[in-house]
Design brief:
Number of strands: 18
Shape: elongated
Strand content: 15-25%
Helix content: 40-55%
Bound molecules: adenosine-5'-triphosphate, magnesium ion
Length: about 500
């Protein structure tokens, strides 16, 4: 009995990590550093892509910071916050996910020394906050207005090209930046709704065979006999959008019905047919030329529509059906009983077209909302997926450039300038805070440094050149990855 009373009191579950204080902070920083190491080689136009095999043995190839971090399946709680940083950057801005993660890691690495030396974390945090605030203020002073001067389209194309220059599709960036800008300019300019740009992938063919369709497009859905008799081209059709099943159910799927003779059974089957025909007649009466349903459209219905010169597609993915509704108007209805012309959408032309090995339903000239669909062609599946991600980055950047007309130069230029500014500023303050701000300023240099490392340049030498240029007042001096030198990246359009 007395023995038991001497047992140590355990509040936490067996195996709980009880480390705390400075060693814990340091170990958290170490974990984050590992992440930084893992993704830093993907930064910039000369960065490498990562190949990641996930738990389901699926292979992914990507250069996108957020995608890589997500796939890495990180378990360390501190390191996980980095994944969140990348994710929120991805959601808000779409691009720059590698940069934010790398910067966060570098700030922590820079502060590790001071944590180990026993500088109070609160002091460190205050210095970081102050430095960030100064940096943001400085960016606001420095940023250039691209405004209305020059050709807006040209400007946007350059922005898209920069976002793509660090990706697999960099070789085709001229082609794709035109496409991205066309896509963004073709949707509603006030709100620029991202969901109105659809992206569809069709394996096979060359990248340059990718195309932009001014309207909604989706793959031909599963169809039954009778479908081939339907007309695949229509001018100004009306479109019914349904969430209704138009299929005779196999009897076994129905609720159990016990019948004792053949006549009763026939009655059940007849009732089924009646219900279906009622629905079909209602749709026909509404005046719809095209019937799209989220749910299956069976063989009887397909034949019925074919006989009445209507076109139908069942099992349309919800996202496509919604986009069709937004673009063509009308409503997605769950019952056909009150279907009328007010619930129908319309468009200028409908056509079924073969793109690569796939048949696509195209709805062009949509009256309600402007929308467009990018159809991507290309070799391997992983390649297409990465193309989609890269286009997403570029679309987000062009969208941002449409909304805000202020830019700074990239390729490490803005980071070097901020670094210089903070170093200068730190001289005006005293004590530990000066040291910490200096460390923060130094950490900003990770971006140009890594851009050089990834390009195989001597980063020490390049950083010296960059520091010198910025000291001499060249605010947009950044890394020139083509010529292995320092150039005015604002003029080089690396924005
Ligand atoms: N032509 C170029 N010359 C020099 N630097 C460039 C050039 N194009 C892009 N950069 C720089 O490369 C960096 C962006 O690299 P990258 O696109 O790989 O990462 P990210 O944008 O931070 O993250 P992600 O694109 O993965 O979301 C930026 O600092 C940008 O200024
Ligand atoms: Mg990028």
């Amino acid at each position: 009995m007395s023995n038991r009373m001497q047992l140590p009191v355990k509040l936490l579950k067996e195996g709980t990590d009880t480390s705390q204080g400075i060693p814990q902070i340091v170990s958290n920083i170490n974990a984050c550093q590992v992440i930084g190491e893992a993704i830093k080689t993907t930064l910039g136009p000369r960065g490498l892509d990562k190949m990641i095999i996930d738990q389901r043995e699926k292979c992914h190839i990507s250069n996108d910071g957020a995608t890589i971090l997500q796939l890495l399946d990180i378990v360390h709680p501190a390191a996980k916050t980095l994944v969140d940083i990348a994710k929120s950057q991805d959601a808000e801005i779409g691009d720059g996910t590698t940069s934010v993660t790398l910067l966060a890691c570098e700030f922590m690495t820079a502060m590790k020394r001071y944590v180990e030396d026993g500088v109070h974390p609160q002091l460190i945090i205050r210095a970081i906050r102050k430095s960030s605030q100064l940096a943001v203020e400085r960016i606001n002073e420095l940023c250039a207005k691209i405004g209305n001067e020059g050709n807006k389209r040209e400007t946007l194309i350059k922005c898209a090209a920069t976002a793509m220059s660090s990706k697999l599709i960099a070789a085709n960036k001229e082609f794709f930046s035109n496409m991205v800008v066309d896509a963004v300019l073709s949707i509603e300019q006030d709100i620029l709704p991202l969901e109105m740009i659809g992206i569809k992938k069709v394996p096979g063919g060359a990248l340059e065979e990718s195309r932009l369709i001014q309207g909604v497009a989706f793959k031909k859905t599963f169809s039954y006999a009778g479908f081939e008799m339907q007309e695949k081209v229509k001018t100004s059709p009306t479109i019914a959008l349904l969430n209704v099943e138009l299929e005779l159910k196999a009897e076994k799927e129905n609720a159990e019905v016990r019948v004792t003779n053949v006549n009763d059974y026939q009655a059940v089957v007849d009732a089924e047919w009646d219900i279906l025909y009622e629905k079909l007649e209602a749709i026909h009466k509404s005046g719809a030329d095209i019937v799209l349903s989220k749910l299956p459209i069976g063989d009887v219905a397909t034949q019925y529509f074919a006989d009445r010169n209507m076109f139908c597609a069942g099992r349309v993915p919800e996202i496509d059906l919604k986009r069709t509704m937004k673009a063509c108007g009308g409503a997605i209805v769950s019952s056909t009983s009150n279907l009328n012309e007010n619930q129908l959408g319309s468009c200028a032309t409908f056509i079924e077209e073969k793109i690569g090995g796939e048949r696509f339903n195209l709805f062009e000239g949509c009256p309600k909302a402007k929308t467009c669909t990018m159809i991507l062609r290309g070799g391997a599946e992983q390649f297409l997926e990465e193309t989609e991600r890269s286009l997403h980055d570029a679309i987000m950047i062009v969208r941002r450039a449409c909304k805000s007309d202020r830019v700074v130069a990239g390729g490490g230029a803005i980071e070097m300038e901020l670094s210089k500014y903070l170093r200068d500023h730190s001289r005006t303050i005293k004590g530990k805070e000066q040291m910490l701000m200096n460390a923060y300023a130094k950490a900003l240099e990770i971006i140009p440094q890594q851009l050089c490392d990834n390009a195989g340049f001597d980063s020490t030498h390049m950083l010296n050149k960059l520091r010198k240029a910025h000291a001499e007042g060249e605010i947009w001096a950044g890394v020139d990855v083509q010529k292995e030198g320092v150039s005015n990246n604002y003029e080089a359009f690396v924005w």
